[in-house]
């Protein structure tokens, strides 16, 4: 389809010609008949798929994720040893979702077998950053698990106490061998990375030159937990 105008082609504006070319490109976009990817199930891991809900069980626990917002088919093949992800008549943008689903399922399997770990270091010039891990919720007064809440004090000398609650299945604790370092561990990579981001964003420097005031808590290392021999 071309844009109809009353002017000759030579007198059209550049905007109209570019728009016409864009419309032609959209109408001639090729749709792939079928796009599929296969994810192999790791040893000691059980994967169940039902109505695009994926449940992964492993030595470290169980994870569940809903993929109903993805326009694709999910099912088990090879007697439960592989996960098949299929997309029918999808565009190039929809095709990229297939690999995303495969990566998310792989991260879930790694999480229930190895787990994930984030390490964060304190950076300060004068006022030392102090952290605590209370076992009682200051809001409700109820007991909570140690490592599910972190309190940050003395950031830039402020008296304000910053409290960050960990996402479900995540815990935070002080590093035993490195000074001014905290460690976050969990099975769900999305929850763990979000908890680390909330800690980092809670100590942002405001109304100062961030090139000079580099104080904060930053991620120094992240990835699966390596086996310790």
Which residues form runs of ≥5 with pLDDT under 50? 1-24
Q: What percent of the residues sit in helical stretches (DSSP H or I)?
A: 10-25%
Q: Total number of helical segments?
A: 3
Q: What's the N-to-C terminus distance?
A: 66 Å
Task: Give the DSSP E fraction (strand runs of 2 or more residues).
Answer: 25-35%
Task: Briefly note the structural class of the backbone.
Answer: alpha+beta
Number of strands: 13
Structural shape:
elongated
The major pleated sheet works out as:
4 strands, antiparallel
- Strands across the major sheet, in which order? 11-12-7-13
**Helix and strand sequence:** HEEEEEEHEEEEEEHE
Return the average pLDDT rounded to an integer: 87
| Global Rg | 25 Å
């Amino acid at each position: 389809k071309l844009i109809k105008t009353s002017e000759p082609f030579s007198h059209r504006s550049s905007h109209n010609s570019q728009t016409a070319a864009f419309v032609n490109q959209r109408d001639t976009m090729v749709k792939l008949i079928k796009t599929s990817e296969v994810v192999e199930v790791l040893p000691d891991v059980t994967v169940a798929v039902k109505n695009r809900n994926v449940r992964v069980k492993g030595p470290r626990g169980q994870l569940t994720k809903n993929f109903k917002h993805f326009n694709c088919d999910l099912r088990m093949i090879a007697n439960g040893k592989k996960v098949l992800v299929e997309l029918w008549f999808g565009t190039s943008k929809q095709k990229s979702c297939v690999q995303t689903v495969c990566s998310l399922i792989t991260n879930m399997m790694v999480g229930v077998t190895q787990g994930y770990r984030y390490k964060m270091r304190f950076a300060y010039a004068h006022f030392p950053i102090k952290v605590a891990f209370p076992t009682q919720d200051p809001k409700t007064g109820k007991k909570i698990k140690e490592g599910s809440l972190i309190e940050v004090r003395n950031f830039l000398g402020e008296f304000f106490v910053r409290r960050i609650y960990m996402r479900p299945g995540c815990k935070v604790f002080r590093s035993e061998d490195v000074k001014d370092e905290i460690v976050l561990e969990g099975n769900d990579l999305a929850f763990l990375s979000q908890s680390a981001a909330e800690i980092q964003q809670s100590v942002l420097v405001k109304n100062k030159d961030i090139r000079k005031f580099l104080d904060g808590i930053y991620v120094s290392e992240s990835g699966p937990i390596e086996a310790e021999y």
